[in-house]
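Quarterly update from the structural biology core.
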Amino acid sequence: CLGDLLMKSCYGGLDVELAAVIGNHTTPQDLVEKFGIPFKLVSHEGTSREKHDELMVEAINSYSSDFVILA
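Predicted structure, tokenized:
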């Protein structure tokens, strides 16, 4: 889960640097920001699946990352 990834990356259990968390709702935003990780909202409300996918790709590409984890 997201909380586990945040904890392990912060306290050395997972040797990664999280570039950002991108979500389609704001529920995890406070938790993510407590770890100093940027949170970006890409809402799916009122958006077609195709348009939402385009917005997600734009958001992902705005960060320098080696991997994308979908959860």
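The helical segments are 2-11, 29-34, 49-61.
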